[in-house]
Protein backbone atom coordinates (compact mmCIF):
# COMPACT_ATOMS: atom_id res chain seq x y z
CA UNK A 1 0.00 0.00 0.00
CA UNK A 2 1.46 3.39 -0.98
CA UNK A 3 0.25 6.99 -0.91
CA UNK A 4 1.51 10.49 -1.66
CA UNK A 5 2.01 12.92 1.22
CA UNK A 6 4.26 15.67 2.61
CA UNK A 7 6.78 15.38 5.44
CA UNK A 8 6.48 19.06 6.44
CA UNK A 9 3.01 20.31 5.37
CA UNK A 10 3.37 23.28 7.74
CA UNK A 11 5.58 24.84 5.04
CA UNK A 12 2.46 25.71 3.01
CA UNK A 13 1.71 28.43 5.57
CA UNK A 14 4.35 30.44 3.67
CA UNK A 15 1.94 30.64 0.69
CA UNK A 16 -0.68 32.31 2.90
CA UNK A 17 1.90 34.81 4.15
CA UNK A 18 3.02 35.44 0.58
CA UNK A 19 -0.57 36.17 -0.51
CA UNK A 20 -1.16 38.54 2.42
CA UNK A 21 2.05 40.45 1.77
CA UNK A 22 1.51 40.69 -1.99
CA UNK A 23 -2.02 42.04 -1.39
CA UNK A 24 -1.51 44.46 1.49
CA UNK A 25 2.22 45.04 1.86
CA UNK A 26 2.92 46.76 -1.44
CA UNK A 27 5.63 49.41 -1.37
CA UNK A 28 4.58 52.98 -2.26
CA UNK A 29 6.81 54.52 -4.92
CA UNK A 30 7.12 57.90 -6.58
CA UNK A 31 4.43 58.49 -9.25
CA UNK A 32 5.37 60.10 -12.57
CA UNK A 33 2.69 61.28 -14.97
CA UNK A 34 3.23 61.81 -18.67
CA UNK A 35 1.16 61.72 -21.88
CA UNK A 36 0.06 58.42 -23.54
CA UNK A 37 -0.04 56.54 -20.19
CA UNK A 38 -2.86 54.33 -21.47
CA UNK A 39 -0.76 53.05 -24.37
CA UNK A 40 2.09 52.23 -21.99
CA UNK A 41 -0.22 50.22 -19.75
CA UNK A 42 -1.52 48.17 -22.68
CA UNK A 43 2.01 47.48 -23.94
CA UNK A 44 3.26 46.27 -20.57
CA UNK A 45 0.14 44.35 -19.52
CA UNK A 46 1.08 41.06 -21.17
CA UNK A 47 4.65 41.22 -19.89
CA UNK A 48 3.47 41.95 -16.33
CA UNK A 49 1.00 39.04 -16.36
CA UNK A 50 3.73 36.63 -17.46
CA UNK A 51 6.27 37.85 -14.89
CA UNK A 52 3.67 37.69 -12.08
CA UNK A 53 2.68 34.16 -13.14
CA UNK A 54 6.34 33.09 -13.14
CA UNK A 55 6.87 34.68 -9.71
CA UNK A 56 3.88 32.82 -8.24
CA UNK A 57 4.93 29.57 -9.95
CA UNK A 58 8.47 29.85 -8.52
CA UNK A 59 7.21 30.57 -4.98
CA UNK A 60 4.73 27.65 -5.09
CA UNK A 61 7.40 25.25 -6.42
CA UNK A 62 9.89 26.33 -3.72
CA UNK A 63 7.36 25.95 -0.92
CA UNK A 64 6.30 22.52 -2.26
CA UNK A 65 9.96 21.42 -2.28
CA UNK A 66 10.31 22.72 1.29
CA UNK A 67 7.26 20.69 2.34
CA UNK A 68 9.17 17.60 1.08
CA UNK A 69 6.71 15.58 -1.04
CA UNK A 70 7.12 11.83 -0.53
CA UNK A 71 5.51 8.57 -1.54
CA UNK A 72 5.19 6.12 1.35
CA UNK A 73 5.22 2.42 0.58
CA UNK A 74 4.16 0.33 3.55
CA UNK A 75 5.79 -3.10 3.69
CA UNK A 76 4.49 -5.61 6.22
CA UNK A 77 6.10 -8.95 6.94
CA UNK A 78 3.18 -11.08 8.09
CA UNK A 79 3.35 -13.28 11.15
CA UNK A 80 4.37 -16.70 9.96
CA UNK A 81 6.14 -19.87 10.93
CA UNK A 82 9.89 -19.61 10.87
CA UNK A 83 13.22 -19.44 12.65
CA UNK A 84 15.75 -16.85 13.54
CA UNK A 85 18.98 -18.32 12.21
CA UNK A 86 22.56 -17.12 12.41
CA UNK A 87 24.87 -18.51 9.74
CA UNK A 88 28.49 -18.62 10.95
CA UNK A 89 31.12 -19.33 8.29
CA UNK A 90 34.82 -20.05 8.57
CA UNK A 91 36.71 -17.86 6.06
CA UNK A 92 40.24 -18.71 7.21
CA UNK A 93 43.09 -19.60 4.85
CA UNK A 94 42.49 -23.36 5.04
CA UNK A 95 39.02 -22.91 3.51
CA UNK A 96 40.77 -22.02 0.26
CA UNK A 97 41.99 -25.60 -0.14
CA UNK A 98 40.01 -27.71 -2.60
CA UNK A 99 37.77 -24.69 -3.23
CA UNK A 100 35.93 -25.42 0.04
CA UNK A 101 34.79 -21.86 0.68
CA UNK A 102 33.16 -21.43 -2.73
CA UNK A 103 31.43 -24.81 -2.40
CA UNK A 104 30.09 -23.86 1.04
CA UNK A 105 28.90 -20.47 -0.26
CA UNK A 106 26.91 -22.20 -3.01
CA UNK A 107 25.25 -24.60 -0.55
CA UNK A 108 24.48 -21.79 1.93
CA UNK A 109 23.05 -19.71 -0.90
CA UNK A 110 20.59 -22.51 -1.74
CA UNK A 111 19.75 -22.87 1.96
CA UNK A 112 18.90 -19.14 2.16
CA UNK A 113 16.52 -19.50 -0.80
CA UNK A 114 14.58 -22.18 1.08
CA UNK A 115 14.21 -20.11 4.28
CA UNK A 116 11.51 -17.82 2.91
CA UNK A 117 9.86 -16.95 6.23
CA UNK A 118 12.92 -16.78 8.46
CA UNK A 119 15.08 -14.04 9.83
CA UNK A 120 18.71 -14.73 8.93
CA UNK A 121 22.07 -13.32 9.99
CA UNK A 122 25.56 -13.88 8.63
CA UNK A 123 28.83 -13.90 10.59
CA UNK A 124 32.36 -14.52 9.31
CA UNK A 125 35.51 -15.53 11.18
CA UNK A 126 39.20 -16.14 10.60
CA UNK A 127 41.87 -14.07 12.44
CA UNK A 128 38.91 -12.27 14.03
CA UNK A 129 35.15 -12.59 13.91
CA UNK A 130 32.57 -10.04 12.81
CA UNK A 131 28.86 -9.84 12.07
CA UNK A 132 28.49 -9.22 8.34
CA UNK A 133 24.67 -8.96 8.38
CA UNK A 134 22.50 -8.80 11.54
CA UNK A 135 19.18 -10.64 11.76
CA UNK A 136 17.01 -9.56 8.83
CA UNK A 137 14.22 -10.66 6.49
CA UNK A 138 16.17 -9.18 3.58
CA UNK A 139 17.57 -12.34 1.99
CA UNK A 140 18.79 -10.44 -1.08
CA UNK A 141 21.25 -8.36 0.95
CA UNK A 142 22.69 -11.49 2.59
CA UNK A 143 23.06 -13.27 -0.76
CA UNK A 144 24.61 -10.19 -2.34
CA UNK A 145 27.20 -9.92 0.42
CA UNK A 146 27.80 -13.67 0.46
CA UNK A 147 28.65 -13.63 -3.24
CA UNK A 148 31.36 -11.03 -2.60
CA UNK A 149 33.01 -12.76 0.36
CA UNK A 150 36.41 -14.32 -0.21
CA UNK A 151 38.88 -16.27 1.89
CA UNK A 152 41.15 -13.84 3.70
CA UNK A 153 38.55 -11.13 4.22
CA UNK A 154 39.11 -11.53 7.96
CA UNK A 155 42.71 -12.75 7.74
CA UNK A 156 44.22 -16.11 6.88
CA UNK A 157 46.44 -17.12 9.79
CA UNK A 158 44.11 -17.92 12.67
CA UNK A 159 40.64 -19.32 13.47
CA UNK A 160 38.59 -17.29 15.97
CA UNK A 161 35.88 -19.93 16.27
CA UNK A 162 34.79 -19.23 19.87
CA UNK A 163 34.74 -15.50 19.27
CA UNK A 164 32.44 -16.04 16.27
CA UNK A 165 30.00 -18.10 18.35
CA UNK A 166 30.06 -15.47 21.12
CA UNK A 167 29.40 -12.53 18.77
CA UNK A 168 26.71 -14.40 16.85
CA UNK A 169 24.92 -15.35 20.08
CA UNK A 170 24.69 -11.71 21.11
CA UNK A 171 22.59 -11.04 17.99
CA UNK A 172 19.69 -12.73 19.83
CA UNK A 173 19.72 -10.42 22.87
CA UNK A 174 16.34 -8.90 22.06
CA UNK A 175 14.88 -11.88 20.20
CA UNK A 176 11.45 -13.18 21.21
CA UNK A 177 11.45 -16.14 18.87
CA UNK A 178 10.93 -19.56 20.41
CA UNK A 179 13.40 -21.14 18.01
CA UNK A 180 16.85 -19.56 17.76
CA UNK A 181 19.50 -21.39 15.80
CA UNK A 182 23.15 -20.92 14.91
CA UNK A 183 24.78 -23.01 12.17
CA UNK A 184 28.52 -22.97 12.70
CA UNK A 185 30.71 -24.34 9.91
CA UNK A 186 34.48 -24.71 10.25
CA UNK A 187 37.44 -26.70 8.97
CA UNK A 188 39.77 -25.67 11.77
CA UNK A 189 40.41 -25.39 15.50
CA UNK A 190 40.30 -22.22 17.55
CA UNK A 191 43.77 -20.72 17.91
CA UNK A 192 42.88 -17.04 18.31
CA UNK A 193 42.41 -17.36 22.10
CA UNK A 194 40.17 -14.28 22.29
CA UNK A 195 37.11 -15.88 23.94
CA UNK A 196 37.14 -19.01 26.14
CA UNK A 197 35.03 -21.92 24.87
CA UNK A 198 32.95 -22.06 28.07
CA UNK A 199 32.07 -18.37 27.77
CA UNK A 200 30.96 -18.82 24.15
CA UNK A 201 28.78 -21.83 25.06
CA UNK A 202 27.37 -20.06 28.13
CA UNK A 203 26.34 -17.08 26.01
CA UNK A 204 24.59 -19.32 23.47
CA UNK A 205 22.74 -21.12 26.27
CA UNK A 206 21.81 -17.80 27.89
CA UNK A 207 19.78 -16.86 24.82
CA UNK A 208 18.46 -20.42 24.28
CA UNK A 209 20.28 -20.87 20.97
CA UNK A 210 20.60 -24.32 19.45
CA UNK A 211 23.99 -24.55 17.79
CA UNK A 212 24.37 -26.93 14.85
CA UNK A 213 28.07 -27.51 14.28
CA UNK A 214 29.52 -28.71 10.98
CA UNK A 215 33.08 -29.94 10.70
CA UNK A 216 34.46 -29.75 7.16
CA UNK A 217 37.31 -32.08 6.20
CA UNK A 218 39.06 -34.72 8.28
CA UNK A 219 37.90 -35.11 11.89
CA UNK A 220 40.78 -34.87 14.37
CA UNK A 221 43.16 -33.44 11.80
CA UNK A 222 41.39 -30.44 10.27
CA UNK A 223 38.95 -29.77 13.10
CA UNK A 224 38.38 -30.94 16.68
CA UNK A 225 35.24 -33.14 16.76
CA UNK A 226 35.19 -33.18 20.58
CA UNK A 227 34.85 -29.38 20.70
CA UNK A 228 32.12 -29.25 18.06
CA UNK A 229 30.25 -32.08 19.78
CA UNK A 230 30.50 -30.26 23.12
CA UNK A 231 29.08 -27.06 21.63
CA UNK A 232 26.14 -28.80 19.94
CA UNK A 233 25.36 -31.11 22.85
CA UNK A 234 25.32 -28.40 25.53
CA UNK A 235 23.13 -26.07 23.45
CA UNK A 236 20.66 -28.72 22.27
CA UNK A 237 21.81 -28.74 18.67
CA UNK A 238 23.47 -31.41 16.53
CA UNK A 239 26.94 -32.16 15.27
CA UNK A 240 27.67 -33.08 11.64
CA UNK A 241 30.70 -34.04 9.60
CA UNK A 242 30.73 -32.65 6.08
CA UNK A 243 33.61 -34.36 4.33
CA UNK A 244 31.98 -34.24 0.89
CA UNK A 245 29.77 -31.91 -1.13
CA UNK A 246 26.86 -34.37 -0.92
CA UNK A 247 27.10 -34.59 2.87
CA UNK A 248 27.20 -30.80 3.22
CA UNK A 249 24.10 -30.49 1.05
CA UNK A 250 22.30 -33.14 3.11
CA UNK A 251 23.24 -31.41 6.37
CA UNK A 252 21.61 -28.16 5.32
CA UNK A 253 18.60 -30.09 3.98
CA UNK A 254 18.23 -31.80 7.37
CA UNK A 255 18.33 -28.46 9.21
CA UNK A 256 15.84 -27.06 6.68
CA UNK A 257 13.25 -29.69 7.74
CA UNK A 258 13.20 -28.54 11.36
CA UNK A 259 9.86 -27.70 13.00
CA UNK A 260 8.78 -24.08 12.54
CA UNK A 261 7.90 -21.54 15.23
CA UNK A 262 6.05 -18.26 15.04
CA UNK A 263 7.87 -15.03 14.34
CA UNK A 264 6.21 -11.70 15.12
CA UNK A 265 5.35 -9.53 12.13
CA UNK A 266 7.46 -6.49 11.37
CA UNK A 267 6.32 -3.34 9.61
CA UNK A 268 8.51 -1.14 7.43
CA UNK A 269 7.79 2.11 5.63
CA UNK A 270 9.78 2.85 2.51
CA UNK A 271 9.92 6.54 1.53
CA UNK A 272 10.57 7.94 -1.95
CA UNK A 273 11.46 11.65 -2.06
CA UNK A 274 10.39 14.05 -4.84
CA UNK A 275 11.45 17.49 -3.52
CA UNK A 276 14.28 17.69 -6.09
CA UNK A 277 11.83 17.86 -8.99
CA UNK A 278 9.99 20.83 -7.51
CA UNK A 279 13.31 22.48 -6.71
CA UNK A 280 14.30 22.13 -10.37
CA UNK A 281 10.97 23.65 -11.47
CA UNK A 282 11.49 26.56 -9.07
CA UNK A 283 14.96 27.19 -10.48
CA UNK A 284 13.59 27.14 -14.03
CA UNK A 285 10.81 29.56 -13.05
CA UNK A 286 13.30 31.89 -11.38
CA UNK A 287 15.54 31.97 -14.47
CA UNK A 288 12.56 32.77 -16.74
CA UNK A 289 11.30 35.40 -14.29
CA UNK A 290 14.67 37.19 -14.25
CA UNK A 291 14.87 37.02 -18.03
CA UNK A 292 11.39 38.55 -18.51
CA UNK A 293 11.84 41.31 -15.90
CA UNK A 294 15.21 42.35 -17.35
CA UNK A 295 13.63 42.69 -20.80
CA UNK A 296 10.87 44.98 -19.54
Main structural class: alpha/beta
Strand tally is: 11
Q: What value does the average pLDDT take? A: 84
Tell me the fraction of residues in β-strands, as a range: 15-25%
> Within the largest sheet, what's the order of strands?
6-5-4-7-8-9
Silhouette:
elongated
Query: Which spans have pLDDT < 50 for at least 5 consecutive residues?
Result: none
Total number of distinct structural domains: 2
Query: Count of DSSP helices?
Result: 9
**CATH topology-level name of the largest domain:** Rossmann fold
CATH architecture of the largest domain: 3-Layer(aba) Sandwich
Quaternary structure annotation: single chain
Q: What proportion of the residues is helical, as a percent range?
A: 40-55%
Task: Give an account of the 3D structure.
- With 296 residues, this protein is α/β, with parallel strands linked by helices.
- It has two domains: 2-73 and 268-295, no CATH class; 80-264, Rossmann fold.
- Helix content is 44%, strand content 23%.
- It contains nine helices and eleven strands.
- The strands form three sheets. Strands 6-5-4-7-8-9 form a six-stranded mixed beta sheet, with helices on both faces. A three-stranded antiparallel beta sheet has the order 1-2-11. Strands 3-10 form a two-stranded antiparallel ribbon.
Amino acid sequence: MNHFTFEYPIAFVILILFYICSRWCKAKGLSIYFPNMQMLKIASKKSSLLSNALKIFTIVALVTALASPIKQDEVVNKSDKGYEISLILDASGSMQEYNKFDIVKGIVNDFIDKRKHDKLALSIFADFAYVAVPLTYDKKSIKRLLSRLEVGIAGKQRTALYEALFLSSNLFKTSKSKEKIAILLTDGMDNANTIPLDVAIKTAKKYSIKVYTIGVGRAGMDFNPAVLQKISKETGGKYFVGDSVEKLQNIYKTINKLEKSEIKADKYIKKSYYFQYFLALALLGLILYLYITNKE
